[in-house]
Amino acid sequence: MKLHSANATKDANHRNLFKSMGYSDSDLSGPIIGIANSWNELVPGHFNLRQIAEYVRKGVHKAGGAVAEFGVIAGCDGISEGHEGMKYILPSRELIANDVETMVRAHSLDGIVLLGSCDKIVPGMLMAAARLGIPAILLPGGPMLGGVEFDGRKSDSTTNAEAFGMLQRGLIDEKTYRNLEGLCSPTCGSCSFLGTANTMCCLSEALGMTIPDGALVPAVYAERLRLAERTGKAIVALVEKGIDAHDIITRESLENAVRVLMATGGSTNAVLHLSAIAAEIGIPAEEMMALYERCSRTTPHVAKVNPASKHDMEAFHLAGGIPRVMKEIRSLLHTDCVTVTGSAVGENLDAHVERYPANPEIIRPASDPFGVNLGLAVLRGNLAPDTAITKPAAIDPSMRVFSGAARVFDGEDAADEAILAGEIPEGTVVVIRYEGPKGGPGMREMFAAMKYLYGMGLAKKTALVTDGRFSGTNNGCFVGHVSPEAAEGGPLAIVRDGDRITIDIPAGSLRIDLTDEEIAERLRAWKRPEPTVKRGFLATYARLAASAAEGAVMKLPE
Fold first, then answer.
1. At the top level of CATH, which class does the domain 376-550 belong to?
2. Which of 120, 137, 141, 438 has the fewest CB atoms within 10 Å, measured from its CB?
3. Is the pTM of this model over 0.70?
4. What is the b/e burial string over 120-157, where b = at least 16 CB atoms within 10 angstroms of the residue's CB?
5. What is the pLDDT of residues 89-147, one digit of tens each?
6. What is the pLDDT of residues 494-518, one digit of tens each?
7. What are the residue boundaries of the structural domains of the chain, listed by start?
8. Residues identified as active-site
9. Superfamily holding 31-144+189-351
């Protein structure tokens, strides 16, 4: 067994530094496993990762490896929502990937366990694994439990935003609104709905980078600790077998992940992240977009979870989670793909024991799905020449074709104010632009705008189109990731109040009622806005960010 760590333990000049921290000769004679731990006291989904790391450590030691743990930054989307902080969340994905790469390469680690649960952290870590090509396993901390029942379902971390709109309309009182604050997020863990965090954990399992059931066991379940110990043992086994991330993250396994994305109706942000992971192994964005379109048309939607239904992530786990979803769509999967267990996808599915009864309200058989072409949809048209993304699974069937007059806002903040002031009439297409990767910069989530429309009773009477993105918990009629973005001179930049916009999801179309000549004339008169940030990391990101259609990765000029 050839060990990378031999580079860092080959002589006394190196070994004495390890020994200064208590490592023994025995520790330095076997594989050294890194634990990239994104624990902190700012992210609920990561609050339990310090304990999780101890159980990973136990598993590594039992398997004969030594542990080298280091910290990784992690930001909370929820805490960052609605202010300048959200501009940093998507760009932080690039920092996370770079940090993990730096620590692994600088110290010649033999394998890595990636501890992360939330938006941008999970994809950043998977990007690093794909880039490094060493044995790697991603272990989430697990979702939180749902909160007190409100509006016909268990509440969650986004319920207060919906309730605020209801408070504005007089549907609930101040006491009810305030009471929700301490009851809707009762435990730590990634948010209890199928947002980007849990979507990416699910897709990591589908990709083969997380051990079976690793995505959805809730954070507060004892089983989460047993999964951590199993992960510690599994990473040493991967090193011994010589199975690395390049063996696991392939075109075929990425297709498996896209299939599960469509089957579950996961977050639209997954398109950005899977494309970014694919880019790390040389798969171009156009190939991934074609894959999303093909899989969307041919994958049955077999799982329905909040925000597409009242059921939360704990209920999804108890219904069988990702293994049961994959069993239902098995005929569409590449079952010979190797996984972090050392076995193939098909072997894992054959060996998996269903511990809980089936719940057809949450996971249905592929022969009787909730529908087809509902997971995510790629739209094109004269308003989105390079594509836009939407999520039919979270959109009422009556709203999947919508046409209305545009109300245009240069940024989310002005749109939020107008919605709460009651200035958005029924039949409006709210347009929020200059929120893309470069324009934001950072491609903020238009989370609040959609939640306020819901709370104001407009979720089924208006639509929202943006070059920004959405939270996985959003529902209503929404289209994001419009590319090219407004700041790059995309057609979204020339939309005016009153222009008619048509969203036709079954037809895969997003159009503005203007001729090509009218669009070209307006674009000739358009002037590129001055950058809003001129120093620091955001300025660097804005200069180097590729379009949403390319995963919004930082890309060096050619």
1. alpha beta
2. 438
3. yes
4. bbbbbbbbbbbbbebbbbbbbbbbbbbbeebeebbbbb
5. 999 999 999 999 999 999 999 999 999 999 999 999 999 999 999 999 999 999 999 99
6. 999 999 999 999 999 999 999 999 9
7. 31-144+189-351, 376-550
8. 471
9. Response regulator (3.40.50.2300)
